[in-house]
Amino acid sequence: MSDNPPIEFDFPDLRRWETGGAAPYVHVRDSGKPGPTVMVAALTHGNEVSGAIVVDALLAAGLKPRQGTLIFSFNNIEAYLSFDAKNPFKSRMIDEDFNRTWGRLDQPATTLETRRAQVIKPFVECADFLLDLHSMHDDCVPLMLCGPLDRGVALAQKLGAPVDIVRDRGHAAGMRMRDYGGFGDPKDTKTALLIETGQHWRASSVEVAKDVTARFLVETGIVEEADLPAGWKQPTPSGQRVVQVTHAIATKRGNFTPAKRFEGQEVIAKAGTVLGHDDGEPVTTPYDNCVLVMPSINRPLRAGVTVVRLGRLL
Fold this sequence. Notes:
- The chain is an alpha/beta fold.
- The protein has 2 domains: about 15-225, Aminopeptidase (3-Layer(aba) Sandwich), CATH 3.40.630.10; about 245-314, CATH 2.40.50.100.
- The chain has 5 helices and 14 strands.
- The strands form 2 sheets. It has an 11-stranded mixed β-sheet, with helices on both faces. A 3-stranded antiparallel β-sheet has the order 9-11-12, with no helix packed on it.
- The model has no long low-confidence stretch (mean pLDDT about 95).
């Protein structure tokens, strides 16, 4: 895979959504009837465009909730507006990763992302259900990251897609929006999902984002399927599988060399299988039937970056 994969779709002009909402690039639609507050967030990372296409389309269609309140947000809009096709991965963020700031929003906001997170925070806090739309640097099958709680797994299973549900404890580099507040509280009922739709600029990533968003909105009861654009929902897979992440393997100095090219979600049958070498030391699977979750080992990495997560099938 080249450093700059081809872009298979047009990027929407989102400037039309800056004003007229509850906050810049945040739109709230209240039905006036009792019901859940449901939030769909795009552009948590500025170069993850499939979700932006979905939210842009739903806003343009004038989608309204039948009950409760529906919130749409374009999170790191400044990063999106900085996109340069010659250096497309750079627009993931401006100063720092928006999705690692949520554990320190009680501190002074000193970066563009922490300032923007402070704007988004009140909407996240009032949401009962949240879908955070992401995509991936590398080509990989879509993944639903449901968090560590049973209710996240249950909601992902009710949606019925994608095939792979990943149960994880969050990110060591900082709290994600998906885990903020009540979403990460075992005693609460708020539920958040994070969908990785596929490689950032594949047309298939947009199809996955449309499908999962349609399923999510219908499952939460905020709309009915007939309210959504025709053709968004795709055939339901014959089954799903849940993977519990047990290990996150990070490279010490950025010198990880993979044993071969990995595509993601491979099941490695035998414990002790060498996945690669980090600073010359072998990195092996810790148990039989080990699943490789979102490997980043096919490209150069910085010191301390997670090269792959390892998981068990549940």
